[in-house]
Design brief:
CATH class: Alpha Beta
Bound molecules: manganese (II) ion
CATH architecture: 3-Layer(aba) Sandwich
Radius of gyration: 17 Å
CATH topology: Arginase, Chain A
Strand content: 15-25%
């Protein structure tokens, strides 16, 4: 079957749209398995799987004005150039009051998106990995360094990570010393996602939140199609609760690290579902008040 090459039902033009989806087909800093550059188009394809009506929140996606820009063109750009391109593009969306939704690509890209936002926002990262290295494989803008790069722009008190279960010892100790906040997946498994979300809400108060989803936060049994899978992950329901809980505050979203060559389709399906969920839930909040 042939489907359009844009995200399902994202058929508004740019001017009318409230939400803009854009892809960044980039995986040059992936450290284990390559292929995340194929993810934006795979996520778009997967989005056609779904009904437009959401039985749970009663939103019909067709009622929301969503534009799909397509992919940002990257031709042999250095990582610095990629980050700058992504920053410039995100700035153009914010200037036009659009809600940015990015499809990665590897997680290094999120640092570029965040640079376009005010320093006053909070950043919530869902990730199996701490990603707090200063440099990795001679690269400052590596996916293993994304939280460190973000912490150079956003006060570390306004950053939180959910679901981690992997870090290098030195990286871990540095993050502890710098008082980076996280709730690991073992804690979430034992005490539930709600208490973790409440802790973060207490910390962020009413700050606006940029939500970045590294799909490897999920257990590999749900989402094996990712570059660096890590056992003992959280579940899709945990992520759903997180999106619903913060829907009032979320002002931007990305989903990163889907790796189609290692996917049987389910990882890209989950990514597409989370894109739709973030759009529906934030839209619902905006028009309910
Ligand atoms: Mn990760």
């Amino acid at each position: 079957m042939n489907f359009p090459d844009y995200f399902a039902d994202a058929d508004s033009n740019f001017n009318d749209s409230e939400y803009v989806i854009f892809g960044i087909p980039y995986d040059k800093t992936s450290s284990f398995r390559l292929g995340a550059n194929l993810a934006p188009d795979k996520i778009r394809f997967s989005s056609w799987n779904f009904e437009t009506y959401n039985l749970k929140n009663k939103v019909d996606f067709k009622d929301i004005k969503v534009h799909d820009f397509g992919n940002i063109l990257l031709k042999k750009n250095s990582s610095n150039e990629v980050i700058n391109k992504v920053k410039t593009y995100t700035l153009s969306l914010l200037k036009n009051k659009k809600f940015p939704i990015a499809l990665g690509g590897d997680h290094s890209i999120t640092a570029g998106i965040i640079q376009a936002f005010s320093d006053e926002i909070a950043v919530l990262s869902l990730d199996a990995h701490l990603d707090y290295r200063d440099i990795y494989e001679n690269e400052k803008y590596n996916h293993a360094c994304v939280i460190r790069r973000i912490s150079e722009k956003i006060n570390i008190d306004n950053i939180a990570i959910l679901g981690i279960r992997s870090a290098e010892k030195r990286e871990f100790l540095e993050a502890k010393k710098d008082k980076l906040f996280w709730v690991d997946s073992y804690d979430i498994h034992k005490n539930g996602i709600k208490q973790a979300l409440k802790k973060i809400k207490n910390k962020f108060k009413d700050k606006k939140i940029y939500l970045t989803l590294d799909i490897d936060v999920l257990d590999p049994s749900f989402a094996s199609g990712t570059s660096t899978p890590e056992p003992f992950g959280i579940s899709p329901f945990d992520i759903l609760e997180c999106i619903e809980f913060f829907s009032q505050d979320i002002i931007g979203f990305d989903v990163m690290e889907v790796c189609p060559p290692y996917d049987h389709g389910e990882t890209a399906i989950l990514a597409a579902r989370f894109v739709k969920t973030v759009i529906e839930e934030t839209w619902l909040k905006k028009y309910m008040d």
